[in-house]
Amino acid sequence: MRCRKLMMGLVLAVALTATAVGAPPTGAVSRPEAAVRGPDTGRGPDASGRAAGPEGRAAAAGGRAAGWPAGVSVYRGRAFDTCLAPSADTMRRWKTSNYGAVGIYYAGRGRACKRQPQLSRSWMRTVRGQGWKVLPVYVGSQSPCVVAKHKKHVRMGRYPVRQGTLEGRDAVRKARALGMQRLSPLYLDMEAYTYREKWCAHGTLAFVRAWNREVRRFGYVPGFYSSANSGVRHMETARRAGVRDLPSVMWFARWRVRPHLYREPVLRRDAWSPERRIHQYAGNVTERHGGRTIKIDRNLVHAPVARVR
Fold first, then answer.
1. 256, exposed or middle or buried, with CB in 10 Å at 0-12, 13-18, 19+?
2. Cα angle vertex 207, ends 243, 280, to 5°?
3. In this predicted model, what pLDDT tens digit does every residue of 135-169 receive, in sequence order?
4. Mean pLDDT, the chain, integer
5. Are 230 and 195 in contact (CB under 8 A)?
6. Taking a C-beta distance cutoff of 8 angstroms, is the pair 212, 249 a contact?
7. Fewer CB within 10 Å, N side or C side of the chain?
8. Looking at residue 66, what is its pLDDT?
9. 37 pLDDT higher than 80
10. How far is the C-alpha of 50 from the C-alpha of 94, rounded, in Å?
């Protein structure tokens, strides 16, 4: 009788061990393509908002992101972005300002300033030599439910994964043409959209994830720019739900507030941290430095910048 009980106990122990090994980890999703249904406090497989790639992996403790690997150039300070890349001479004159980095709209079918007469590989080298850091912005296809009327003509089509892949490849190709090396960030600009419409959120997220995968595949770092209350909130919801292939850097626009990086209400403090945030805190303002006037957006940065050769 005692022997029989011992045998039954061994069988039960083996069964329990097999069940534990086969069970998914707590907070993980069973499919990478799991739909985002709403806020979720569960920690996904990549709580830092990053997927594994050339930019490294998330650290285990608290889901906090590990530091960037050697080769990634990180800048901390003020930056401005402007629709049309200024001349090299204007950039030289603006060294008298408190800005140390510039955002350039280097490619994408959705750019407002499609013609960029100043922007070239030579321009990139020149401004780098002047001491500027560069934040490259790609304005591709926009969400199907984009709010801005002037962006509706560049909405993504019926196959967002295919389109995101193709545009991610285009983003890398155009970056290379301007002399931006691997481990440079490429920031996808997705203007405000009504992400609460499920059909729209699903397609937009599929596009963004496909774009990210393709950018990572070539060794670049995918970033994401959007309004804090639309695209950024959407990405944070996806992160909390455990969705993979999310952006590695978050550039959030919230105007008419004091500049900050880690007090954004729609982002958990440990998400996209450290060295993975940009706050655009003012837009369409005019400044004059060194005798030159430009209409700009103002940003506070602690994030990767382009590596220019």
1. exposed
2. 85
3. 999 999 999 999 999 999 999 999 999 999 999 99
4. 84
5. yes
6. no
7. N
8. 61
9. no
10. 34
What DSSP designation does 216 have?
H
Q: Which of 209, 222, 227, 205 is nearest to 279 (CA)?
A: 227
**Predicted pLDDT of residue 67:** 80
With residue 199 as reference, give the H or E element that holds it. Answer: helix 198-217
DSSP 119: -
For 61, phi then psi, to 5°, come to -70, 115
Structure tokens belonging to residue 214: 């393709």
Taking phi first (over 0 means left), then psi (-120 to 50 degrees means alpha), and beta for anything else, what does residue 98 get?
alpha
In Å, the largest CA–CA distance within the chain is 97
**Which two tokens mark 293?**
């006037």
Cα-Cα-Cα-Cα dihedral sign, residues 252, 257, 259, 261: negative
Taking the complete model, does pTM exceed 0.70, yes or no? yes
d(CA 59, CA 153): 41
Matching residue, tokens 């950039």: 91
The yes-or-no verdict on residue 28 having pLDDT over 90 is no
253 within 8 A of 54, measured Cβ to Cβ:
no
pLDDT per position as a tens digit, 61-91: 222 456 898 999 999 999 999 999 999 999 9
- What pairing do the DSSP bridges indicate for beta strands 292-305 and 73-81? antiparallel
Tell me how far apart the alpha carbons of residues 173 and 40 are, in angstroms, rounded to a whole number.
37
Q: Tell me the helix, strand and coil percentages in the chain, rounded to 5.
A: 30, 25, 45
How many whole angstroms separate alpha carbon 53 and alpha carbon 129?
Answer: 30
- Residue 93's pLDDT band (boundaries 50, 70, 90)? very high
Q: Alpha-carbon distance 135 to 185, whole Å?
A: 7
Q: What is the rounded average pLDDT of the residues 186-206?
A: 97
pLDDT-derived band at 7 (thresholds 50, 70, 90) equals very low
- 101: β partners: 79, 133
The answer to whether 246 and 50 are in contact (CB under 8 A) is yes
